[in-house]
Structure formats: structure tokens, C-alpha cells
Design goal:
Elements: H1 12-25, E1 32-39, E2 49-52, E3 58-60, E4 66-71, E5 76-80, E6 87-90, E7 99-100, E8 112-114, E9 119-121, E10 129-133, H2 134-138, H3 145-149, E11 156-160, E12 169-173, E13 186-189, E14 192-194, H4 202-205, E15 225-231, H5 234-237, E16 248-253, E17 259-274, H6 283-296, H7 321-326, E18 330-342, E19 346-358, E20 366-379, E21 385-401, H8 406-411, E22 443-462, E23 465-484, E24 501-524, E25 527-550, E26 566-590, E27 594-605, E28 614-625, H9 630-633, E29 638-652, E30 663-666, E31 677-681, E32 690-703, E33 708-720, E34 722-727, E35 736-741, E36 743-760, E37 764-782, E38 802-805, E39 808-811, E40 818-820, H10 831-834, E41 837-840, E42 845-855, E43 858-868, E44 870-872, H11 913-922, E45 929-931, E46 934-945, E47 955-969, E48 986-996
Amino acid sequence: MTKTYYLFRIRPFFSCCLLFFIFYYVAPAQNHLISGQITDGQAPISGASIIIKHTIKGTVSDFDGHYELDAQTTDTLQISYLGYKTLELVVGNQRTIDVVLQEDATALGEVVINAGYYTVKERERTGSIAKVDAQVIEEQPVNTALEALQGRVAGLDITQTTGLAGGGYTVRIRGQNSITAGNEPLYVIDGVPYDLGSLSNQNLSGLVLPGGIINPLNTLDPNSIASIEVLKDADATAIYGSRGSNGVILITTKKGKQGKTKISLDVSTGLVTVTKMSELLNSEQYLAMREEAFANDGITNYPSYAYDINGTWDRNRYTDWQKEFVGNEGYNQTVRAAISGGNDQTRFAIGGSFMEETTVFPMDFNYKKYTVYTTLSHQSNDERLKLQFTTNYGLDKNCLPTSDLIRVAKYLPPNAPEIYDDEGNLNWENSTWNNPFAALASTYTNELSNLLANATLSYSFIKRLDLKVNLGYTRSNMDELQLNPHTIYNPAYGLTSSSSNAEKNEAERTSWIIEPQLDFSQDIAQGTVRLTIGGTMQEQMMEEFGLLGSGFVNNQQMNNLSSAENLRTTVDYNSQYRYAALFARINYNWKQKYIVNLTGRRDGSSRFGSGNQFANFGAIGLAWILTEENFLKNKKWINFAKIRTSYGTAGNDQIGDYQYLSTYTIEPVSYDGQIGLTPTSLFNANFGWERIKKFEIAMNVSLWRDHLNFEVAYYHNRSDNQLLAIPLPTTTGFSSLNSNFDATVDNYGWEVGVQTINLQSQDFEWRSGLQLSIPKNKLVAFKGLENSTYRNQLVIGEPLSIYKLYHLEGINTETGLYEFTDYNQDGEITAIEDRQVIGDLSPKFYGGLSNSLTYKNWNLDFLLQFTKKDGLNEFYNTEPPGFMQNQSISVLDHWQFNGNQGYVQAYTAGNNFEAYYSHIKFTQSQAIISDASFIRLKSFSLSYKLPLKKESSTTCTLSLQGQNVLTFTNFKGGDPEQLSSFLPPLKKYSIRVFLEL
């Protein structure tokens, strides 16, 4: 069975159901022609939408406002246009229906934004909040919600750490505020804070999943999400206090809606491939490099161990190892089902999904995900008592090799032996190589489960006075197992299963939260006051336990560590974190045009000692709605304009538990038969909060009946009192002391968001959106930097993400070796004094350009993601050209003889120490950094809604979707988003069928 088969693989049961509904519901209708004109009472409205209610059948008014539509007497017409109130009219026996739409000045502002502890209309918000709705997420064939947000929100920078399903993400909202403490945003799912810290043990997973990062958000089905709000500035995040210092990502899952019970079925299947391969030497080029390298080293008789060139291996063999190891086709299959409905009092939703994705590696490695969610909402007849209960459960199972194969694919000599011999057994070529396929018997598997439960109870005592209690519980479990059988080694070694080993790790994190809240509103002096006060109590506990077993009777027993001859505990750890807070918000909206929002919060954290556990944070937000002023109020060309600004403070305690205390660890090796304790950190009573100050000023404008909407914002965040480790003399027995440094970091920049309606006609509509971020990061001050260990990685006035590098001047035309700038002119090139070149890998700007085109029942949506940045290129972390490993074709531009020029120095096979040492400096110079800017067709979705019977509420949509489809870049180091030695984001194509009954 070929993997291409899976592109069309839809389970028979669902296929039969789909065909039944298509043939049953698709039928012609007996209609009569309705016509008319849409106006605003003075002028015709072009592009107004006229549809038959509960169907997808409709039309759009032409330039003169006229329309024609087939309809029946029982139909109801829905007429809508941006900036005007939607109107519904029963057709009856009418043949001509002229419509006058009433302008709705608040149409744009009626969009409700989730701000966490409260909701706010778009027009009235004083803070920076971006919203991404379910439709945007569902149009992308992604495994996680974070992947769906890439390029969609200004100020939100998301990078995949690996292309493997189940991997992690690096997420930054408006840059890096802390030098070493946490910079991750706060995630809140249905009102419950969700810790996205990885539970994985890096010793088991770090070689295949970078940093051992496994994002717990992977267990949440993206299609169960109703909306995601990103809170960025002080005003929007202040109500979360220190937890919102790095921004907040609010995720709201789908809830039941009033009306007829609906059943939905969502099936998709697709292919997964690598986006871009590195350009490597073929066998002829590689062998020519090796020959020249030995000649440069003065060696004419090739060593016995140089199998690739001395004739042991076939010099005419060529294998594209990238194709063998990471060039396979993976497949993805997803099935989702949901049911929802309810009445005025009670609403419900239940849904579940299954997803499986194989890797681009050889052999049967795969990732599986199972999810289920339920919601139940109820309110009393008088609408005073309201109850909502939500649960989400997800289970991930990931089976992978113990290390990413892309490094083997890049560096294995192209004329290396065949993987299998003539009999189909692993080929060891007379013990001249370690067959890389043997290493695939060494496996890493993990199983991650997450349970999130939330209950919200509210009661209105009197009008405009509500008491609410939010209860939340989360539980995450991670089970990991790494198996290393003796068969990964050459049989010539004579090893048995007694040399096999297995390592198992179990981790659990549980958390509960209670948040009582009181909301009150009152009209005062032509305005409205809204007051929110509340508190938070939260406790989080974590446990981890690991075992290493070796010496098995046979490899079949490796899954059961109790059968190991030798057993050792690798980790036994538990911690507790407690958090408490009081918060208050007062909002005053005067005459619907002047808005003041004051927020305060007092936080308490168990991560600091007595006297430093509590801190106060707050913010003020102001907004002025210009279009409510007389000088703009009656202007037809401008619908809405607002200026807003905010300023506030936040904190940071993301430094781990017990960091202020004297701590100890148990030594794994006994001394004189006794197990002892080793001190790991010193007590520091002054250890306290990092501080962050945030400022923003922005403007929102909507023009020409909402055909052009834009928002421009400038922000400036400054963080100080940095949480760092102070280096100590080795005579103290400790390497460092955790403390607060007098260091200051700035993050500032511009954000631009634009939405436009480009074209509208009877059958066609084209909308666009642009998100642009221009961030700046700078270390403003660092007292004592020159005398600290941070002097090798930080420079005042430069970003935090820099590399301090040697300056490559070029190649000495006589020696053929690299030459570097000796800044202190002492005759030596040293790391401390001569690494003065600054390499900055942070993006100069980034964003996305989205487009949505609709023609009758067809819809095309696509996003172009773009980034201007530098990256680590093909020379980073490499051995000198001439060694027994493949290289990028870039090394062909090299020095060959006296007086010759080239970009790469003379080849060496390793016998010229001066050349080797020079190459090491080369890989620490500005030569390893080059332009990694790119434009990527991040996602596209082409969908078609089948024309079903209008009397039915059934809908069926067929879609072709893609992710990371095309990449335009001059970068030569592979994919421009690729981390060295790990898979880049993968290209995906998917066919999707969505049916709703």
C-alpha cells in the first residue's frame, strides 16, 4: 500500500454517509424571481449581501444597488452590509422587494472581545487585544493552535522547534523581557491558567525533540477552539498581574448554541513532506574534496580507515541520504465528530477527535492524538443564576527514534555502503561503518495526557450586580521510555542483551484554582461605571521519577524494568508552587467617547522568601473615540476612529521553585557505602520580583463603510531587577548565587494591522489583511557586566539574542588559511578579547498578508508569511571541509593554490592542526551568519459548499488545504526556520470533508 493512497483515504462508513446526504439533499427547487434595489435612503448600496435564511444561496447587489434572486414564498431574505443593521424580510407573494438599510455606527464595535475576567466591545477597549476566530484556525491543516497563529497576530512571534508532530514551540509576545528567567506568555483555557512547561526529561527526548520541549497544548484539538485572544499591553494584561508580564493567550473552546441539535462530521487526510533539502556534494565532488584534502596535508597513501576514498567503499556509488532518511512521505489522517444544541435555558456540546501522523523518517514512527471535550451551560428562567461546566481531555502517543535523523542525512558520505545486503540484512560492510539504520532500533516513546476542567457559577443579586466563582482543575501526566537494545551495535562486537538498557521517566503536574469575582455597573453623569473585584488562590504540584535499567535476559523484556539485572534511580523530584492575588478594575465610559480603565493587582508567590513574596502591579488605559466628536460624527467617509494609550507595571517570578533557598541533591553514587547530599544552591533572602514597565499608544480607524480598517501601535516595555545567577569562586563550593541584577532590558517597536474589502460584486468578494511587526530589543544597562560571566554573551546597546563572533578578514592567499581581526593587537586571536563582531538573529520585521476570495460557493483563503532576519547558515557546527563527512556545495568555492582566492580555506583531512584550529574560529565568526529572510505561502484553503436543498439545514463543504506550501528565500542552509540538526517545519497537503446535519 503506497502512502499516496492515504491522500484519498476516508473511512468507508463516513464515505457512505457523505454520499447519502449529498444525493438526498441536492435537488432542484421551484422558485420565482425576486428583484429590487438596496439603498441607504439616499444612495444605492453596492455589494450588499442578500441570502435566503438557513441556506448558502444568495447574491450581491450590483453597482446601482439592484439584485435578482430566485426564492419561494416561504423564504426569508437576510440583507446585510458592513456598517448597516442586518434586515430580515419574508418573501411571501412579492416579486419586487426594495430595501432601505439603516446605518449602524457601532457595527465594528459590536464585536465582543474576551479580556479574561471580563468582556469588552471592540470599540470600547483601551488595551491591545488581537482576536483570531475559529474559521481561521479550521482553514489550516495544523496539529496545534499555536501553529495556526503564525503570521496572524502583530507582535506575536511563534517558531516551531521541530517539524515533528508533538514537538514544541517558542512563543514571544513583544520580545524577550528577561535575560534568563521565563519569557513565555500566560495561557488561559476557558478561564483556567494552563502551565505549558514541558514535563519531558531532556536526557531521554533532547536529541529528537529540541531541548526536550513537548508542548502540553498539543493535546488540545485546534478545531475545538472557538476563538483565541492575545493580550499584549499593560492595560490588557494588568488584571493578570505578574502572570501576564509576558502577555496572555486566552483560548475559548466551542460551546453549545440555542437551537436545533446539530451533528457535525469532519474528516481529512493528507501528505507530509520536508519543505526544503540542503544542497550537498555528490560522490564525484565529495571524493575530489577528500583527495585534495589529503594532498594539502601531504599524504599520498590514504590511511586504512579512510574507507570512502582508499577503495574499500565503491567510489562510483552515490546515495542521496537526505532522501533516504528525511525524504519520505508521511501521512496525516484526522476524524472529528461533534454534537451540540440546546434551548433558552440549557445548552450543550460534545465532541471528540482522532489524529494520526507518520514521520518523514524511514520505518513506522508515528504520532497519535485522541481528544474529547464537553460543555454544559444552564441558566434559570429569570436569567439570574448561570452555570457553565467545561472539560477537555487529550491523550498523545508519540513513537520516534532517539535522535533526529537529519544530521545523519546531511553528513554521511555520499558513497557510503548500501543499507542492506543482498539477503535483506543490515549491511555492516566488513565492520567499516556503523550502519545508521541499526540505530533506528533505539526508540523513544512518550505518552502525554492532559485533563482540564472548569466550572463557572454566577448569580445576579440585583440588576447590574453579579457574583461569580471560577473553579479550575488541570492534570498532566507524561510517561517516557527510551529503549537501547544491543542490536544497534555491530554484531562483530559480540554484544548480547545484557548490554541493552532502558530508561523510563514519569512526571505529573496537577493544579487547582479558585477565583471569586464581583461585577457591578452603574450609570453616572452621562456615563457608565463598571467595577470588577476578585481574588485568586492557586496551587500547583509536580512530581517526577525516573529509572535506568540494564542487563536483560532478552530484548523483549526491556519494556519491563523489573526484569533488569541492574536498576538505578535517575531522578526523584517533587515541588509545590502556591500563588494568591487580589485584583480590581474600574472602568468609566463617559458619553461613549471618553474611556478610562484602571486595573490593580496584588500578587503573592511562594517562589520568593519572606518579605519579598508580595508585590503590587497596575495599569491605566485611556481611549478617546474621535468619531463621537462633532467634527467627525457626521462624516460619511469615516466610520470609526479612536486613539488609545496605556501605561502600567508587571512582574516576573518564572525562575522555578525554591530558588531562594539552600537546596541539595542526592548523589547517585555512594561513598563508602553511604548515599550523601550535595548542596546545589545558596540561600538568598533578598531574592525578589523582576519588574516590567509597559507603555503603548495606538490609533484605530475605519473608513468608507468599513472597507478599510487599520490599527497602528507603538509600544515600549522596560524590565529591570533581572533574575540572574551571580558567579561565585569555586572555593565556595557553588558555581553561582541566584539574585537580582541591576540590569535593564528594553523592548519597543511598531505594530500595524490592516483589513480591507478590495472588491465586491454580485458573485465575487475579495478581502485582505496585513499584520506587520517591527520589534527592537536592547540591553540598556548591566552593572558590572565586564566582570561577570555574561560578558561573553551580552553587550550593552545590543539585543539579548546576539552571538559574539570573530571577524573573518578573508583567506591568506599564501597559506590558504582564514585570517581574523586581532582587536587588541596582542598577536593572538582569543575568545574574550577578539570576539567583537555582533551577530543578531532576532527578526528585523515579520508578519503576514492574508487574502480571502469568494465566488458563489467557492472560497479561497491563503496567508503569505514573511520575515526579515539573519540565521545560522550551512557552515554552523561543521567539521572542516575534507573530513570524512559530506558538506554543502558552498565549500566548492575554496582556496586551491598560492595566490588563489575563495570563500572557504584550503581543505584538510585533519592532519593539519593549524587548518583545523582556523576552521573552528571560522565557525565562530560572522561567516556562519547569513540572510535567512523568507516569504512563505504559509497556508491555503480552497473550499466548495455543495448546493443542498434549501429546506434542509444540512451543509457539506469540500476543501483542499495546504501548510508551508512554498518558500521563497536565498538562504542556503536548508529551511530558513530550521534549527541546526533538527527537522524544519513540514509541508502538508490535506483533503477535508465537513458535514453538518
